[in-house]
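Support case: user asked for a sample of complex input and structure output to validate their parser. Sending the pair below.
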Amino acid sequence: MPEQLEQSPVDRLVARRLGLGAAMDRGELEQAQLAALRSTLGHAMAHSPFYRERLRGYDPACLTGADALQELPFLSAADIPEQGHRLLSVSQSRVARVVTLQTSGSTGSPKRFFFSIADLASTSDFFLHGMHSLLKGDERVLVLLPFLQPASVGELLIAALQQGGIKAAGMWPPLPGTAMSRQLREQQIRCVVGLPQQLLAVSTLAPPGQLRSMLLCSDYAAPALRRRIEANCGGTTFLHYGTTESGLGGGVECRAHRGCHLRESDLLVEIVDPLSGKALADGQPGEVVLTTLGREAMVLIRYRTGDTACLERSRCVCGGITARLRAIRGRMAGCRLPCGDLLYSQEVDDLLFRIPGLLDYRLRLDHEQRDRLHLDYLALAEARQLKEPLRAALISLPAIRDSLGCGKLVLGQFQQVDSFAAIHTLKRTIIDQRSKGDRDAICS
Ligand SMILES: [Zn+2]
């Protein structure tokens, strides 16, 4: 018998947190979001010096329709380090966790995000519910994320699962080949959570049929990479969308895999044209803009994430009505090549992860007389001859082909490596070392 498609568990979470019944409809959900938004605005204007000044004279009671949100100004990534503690809406003694993100390059000031105990509890609530999209019965979960620091993403997830009666363990950094294989077997792991590239390696290490599901998080997951994980282990991959700004958790795919169901009790998501800032229709790709609902310590109102995705608010195949984020491409910063074209790490991922045997890579640009493009890559032991297919794939990309053609770019070293340092940050597949003042800028 075919598996019956279960409604996304995120819907249950959202209904409960917004005080709605399980049979909520889209209109009720959006009205409850507006009420939560009015309350959040009132809280921010009363307690944050930044919002008190920026929204001076604004009456949250005016927010009676979804369009009213568009009258509010955007919050940019640059506002975060500039405003610092002025964005806080609680006293510092009530801050339970600070996440510091280094901005691209070595010169930018770090961005700091503050969370209260209640903020972290809402994330844990989402983590536990979201994981029910993947899990069945008493399956054991392995979390390949940093988990030793209190309230780190891995620790929050493991604690939430354990509180929900699910057996979960953490591992960071991930063990290499044979040792990982032994752990998977001995602990009878059925589900693994981690970065897409690391899960690709893990998918080659488990006994056939053992891994039933994988949650891909914290980075762009190329469709080809997902297909290879599923082909390797016979399990199903699920995407999670979440950033520090979204409170670490944001949305997760249901069993229909038609986009990540968003925790709309805690987040209001818009998609806007990145140039004009105008709201885009559902299904149109644009920039993800986040507004936090009910967040205590640091409220974000219309925060421009820089991520690209589409929003869908129609009912999902699973029956769920929470909005879904689809075609998630992450930050589309791009790396400018010498003949003017931008190279995006997502398009490199889309192409390179189609190559059988490739497990991970780092693309690096430096400059010696001309710009040079180097590739370090990790491959399965049995994949011997990847240099040529990798070279052919890279020069098929228009941005690279054109810059090679105009003579201002050359291909440098292509070398197979044994491992990469385990770094749980945003994507590090294109490293730009061309400028002396900015040795390790990350392009995208
Ligand atoms: Zn669904």
